[in-house]
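Troubleshooting log. The previous structure file for this entry was overwritten by mistake, so regenerating from the original sequence record. Sequence copied from the archived sheet and checked twice against the printout by T.R.
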Amino acid sequence: MVRISVIVENNSTKPNIIAEHGLSLYIEACGHQFFFDLGQGHLFAQNAVSMGINVADAEFAIVSHGHYDHGGGIANFMQLNKTAKVYLHSDGFGMHYSLKDNNFYKYIGLDQTLVNHKRIELTNGVLQLANGLTLFSGIQNNNCISPANNLIFKKVGECYINDNFTHEQSLIISDGNNTILLAGCAHSGILNIINKAQQITQRQITHVLSGFHIKGVDNKEFISKMANQLLQINCKYYTCHCTGNEQYAQLKAIMGNRIEYATAGTVIEIE
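Regenerated output below.
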């Protein structure tokens, strides 16, 4: 069985679990227990305690990409857990920005003081973390890329250029008959990530948990296209974080019981 506890998410329906713009999951799978993303800072640890999870018990942590709302808790994690490694893509410490009103570029990257930390393991390509746990990056296709990506940049020298999200990585959990895909924001396009995962494993993905990065996207045609293509893949979807409540409602209207929203405090058990 795979058990996924949603520690941090933009919404919470439980009084003892606090919401924030961010994502953190606690995974128990393939005989291991670990974090996938760590939210903005300290909240993941507070909510973990409320859910009966001891941060010090995690064997490692994965950060899906180099944005503060997924990796802002790295320093807190390493303070509470004295031995675990943090797996981050080798481009994860890039200078990442979001374009705001009045042409203001807001820094949304990670804490640069951690760049040379000995417990941060930089990754690239396909990495077998353990039996049944495969970390991967390097998405090439450009099917159904969210228009919201147009506001996200990286700084190279003195220039701001559109981010190509090479720093994004996802996880495949292979457990019995289930092949589960975890992604953070799916900036590279959730359909492209699923396709890559199936190429790597040569197995049908059975479950997906990911944000879809369509919050704020006012394009019903695009969302309808995404929903219908997701339906063509025979799996169960759980979405969260950067999908957006209104956009999720549009997906739900098309996809029905094939998709659910995973709020903070939710525990998903896949047998």
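The radius of gyration is 17 Å. Archived copy saved in two places this time.
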